[in-house]
Design a protein that fits this description.
Blueprint (H helix, E strand, L loop, with lengths): L16 H7 L5 E5 L3 E5 L6 E8 L11 H22 L4 E4 L15 E5 L16 H15 L11
Antiparallel strand pairs: 1-2, 2-3, 3-5, 4-5
Helix pairs in contact: 2-3
């Protein structure tokens, strides 16, 4: 499905921030990636261990995804949830995804958010501080150290 097949109003952003992060044009913490999917540690931590799961190929919404990409994203979301659980032992894990500006999509590159719940429950959709890349690198290191203790997580990382 291409953009013209959808009635969604897509946010505009040139260049795409996620494409810039994936290409190395802008600094960002990439937890892991393969040819299809990448996992990033977001600088806006709206939950504990807040990650982004996104396709490497640029397309704006879930409507443009191919079946093999959807399967890889779901497998990676499950891996990310287990990694967050291993690293942070939260009582809940939230997953959310938005398609189109009416759904509050801000960056026109498909992405899923996944985060451990906050101490009072849920996640924070208010303004949150933007962390430095060094801080998100520390979150990534904590997650990577934790998954080393869970053998079944290692081989399944994207």
């Amino acid at each position: 499905m291409n953009d013209s097949d959808s009635s969604l109003d897509i946010p505009e952003q040139e260049p795409c921030a996620f494409c810039d992060y994936l290409s190395g044009a802008r600094p960002f913490t990439i937890l892991c990636r393969n040819d299809l999917i990448a996992v990033l540690v977001t600088r806006e931590q709206r939950g504990i261990g807040h990650l982004l799961v996104l396709p490497v190929r640029h397309y704006p919404t879930l409507l443009e995804s191919e079946p093999h990409e959807r399967h890889a994203m779901m497998d990676t979301l499950a891996w990310a949830a287990a990694a967050i659980d291993a690293a942070f032992e939260r009582p809940g894990i939230a997953v959310w995804q938005n398609n189109g500006t009416a759904a509050h999509q801000a960056i026109p590159h498909l992405h899923f958010h996944i985060a451990g719940t906050l101490p009072g429950g849920g996640t924070d959709f208010d303004d949150v501080p933007e962390l430095a890349v060094e801080q998100t690198d520390q979150i990534a290191a904590q997650i990577m150290a934790a998954i080393q203790t869970v053998p079944e997580l290692g081989p399944k990382a994207p």
